[in-house]
Amino acid sequence: MHRSDTIAAIATPPGEGGIGVIRISGEGATEIAERVFRRKSKTPLQARRVYFGEVVDPDTGETLDRALLIPFHAPHSYTGEDVAELHCHGSPYLLRRVLEQVCLLGARLAQPGEFTLRAFLNGKLDLAQAEAVADLIRARSDAQLRSALALHTGRLSRQVQSLSDALLGAIATVEAHIDFSEEIGELNPETLAPVLESLIRQMDALLRDAPAGRILREGARIAIVGRPNVGKSSLLNALLGEERAIVTDIPGTTRDTIEESFQIGGVPMVVLDTAGLRESADVVEQMGIERARRAAEQADLILFVYDLTAPDHEADRRLLQSLPVETPKVLVGNKMDLCSPPFQPLSREAGAGETVSLASRTEKEQEVKVSALTGYGLDSLKQAVLQALQLLHLGEETPALTHQRHIYAVQQAREHLQQALKSVLQQLPSDLIAVDLRSAWLMLGEITGECADEALVNRIFRDFCIGK
Ligand SMILES: Nc1nc2c(ncn2[C@@H]2O[C@H](COP(=O)(O)OP(=O)(O)OP(=O)(O)O)[C@@H](O)[C@H]2O)c(=O)[nH]1
Ligand SMILES: [Mg+2]
């Protein structure tokens, strides 16, 4: 990477728009911008002022657009370098022409994410904050916006930094005992162990809300699963508020998996309606059933639909047991409108010789009764979904850990700390303890990028869009 070269890109999205911005960054940014920009005054450009003028073809002097120029001087810019932004009208053709001129004058086309990469390399933001920029751009709900902003303002970075600092303190203590054991004696477990325990507790607090945090950021995949004709497609339609999937009274109506997006409580969700699960000789239906199984396996949450009016739920119970055990589930008793009590919930108290209620198998399993036809119980269903995804009892603040990468790093750091703590308590040699503490510290450093290698950094910025 040649960091001294000047990069340029269209920073606004492709297509026509009110304005289109060309961003130039690097040593030559302002000079290049001035050569394609004509303004009345000849006074030198001042940083962070807006200038009105014309964008011109420097060879012919032809006016291409009337535009604004905003110069920024290093280090007070997004990238930390000299930056010039040309705000033109949002014509894709015009923007390409101006960009072409800018490149002829010595800039090169920026790679995806290269502006933010430079900001990272110049210390304007850390790695987690850079990832937040991508989150911010992709946010599709208030919840996503809030957690992206929290990450961007450095909330997680500060927490990680304070853990790292405390860890460094512990490392220093241990290493002093390695180097000067004769002068200061053996390491005292009673002073070090509480420090490590406290660090582990802080990491546990971070990790507790991490599953919810990941779902807030990535959205949740919800598979609607059940036997044929129980009303899965009707439920999808009811949740979406539109007649998306075909509903008939013929069992085996849905063949292919249908995928739609919506939100519950500001959390983006993708719901999948699937083929009813049963033994089938029909080849197409079999393929549908195969897909339904896969959808259930990949889901963050399963809505298990059954028919409250069915006389016997033995087949439902067997089916439920065949679904992935670890995945949170909401048991949805449907067709409530047809029920005059007493209806038969799937989790009814087990009588003599009966299988024990499945609903009590894990506390993540909720049960609600609805009518996909009348809309009865849909609000309770939505609450149950949020509850099952552990999104209901979050505090005021959004979870700090939202990226799988960050979650993994904290988990790894925690494991190393746990190992170090064990060694301390067993009074094992100090250098052994130091190795684990260092590994924990390195893992934390990967989050902010303090200890990230080039491959990791490149992988993160590869997912950015051009101009960002
Ligand atoms: N009364 C009543 N009927 C319902 C309700 N939900 C679905 N139905 C009816 O039940 C039948 C089956 O509904 P679908 O939504 O197609 O069921 P499905 O589970 O998608 O069925 P497959 O795609 O065949 O697996 C249709 O006749 C629906 O009108 C409900 O809440 N109340
Ligand atoms: Mg269906």
Secondary-structure map:
Blueprint: E1 7-10, E2 17-25, H1 29-35, E3 37-38, E4 51-56, E5 63-72, E6 83-90, H2 92-104, E7 108-109, H3 114-121, H4 127-138, H5 142-152, H6 155-179, H7 181-184, H8 189-208, H9 210-218, E8 220-226, H10 232-240, E9 258-264, E10 267-273, H11 283-298, E11 301-307, H12 314-321, E12 329-334, E13 366-369, H13 378-388, H14 404-425, H15 430-448, H16 454-462
Parallel strand pairs: 1-7, 8-10, 8-11, 11-12, 12-13
Antiparallel strand pairs: 1-2, 2-6, 3-4, 4-5, 5-6, 9-10
Helix pairs in contact: 4-5, 5-9, 6-8, 6-15, 8-14, 14-15
The structure holds guanosine-5'-triphosphate (GTP) and magnesium ion.
Magnesium ion binds next to α10.
Q: Averaged pLDDT, please?
A: 91
What's the number of extended β-strand segments?
13
CATH class of the largest domain: Alpha Beta
Given helix and strand content, the structural type is alpha/beta
Examine the secondary-structure arrangement and name the CATH architecture of the largest domain: 3-Layer(aba) Sandwich
Radius of gyration: 29 Å
Q: Span from first to last CA?
A: 17 Å
Small molecules in complex? guanosine-5'-triphosphate, magnesium ion
The CATH H-level homologous superfamily of the largest domain: P-loop containing nucleotide triphosphate hydrolases
Uncertain segments are: 348-362
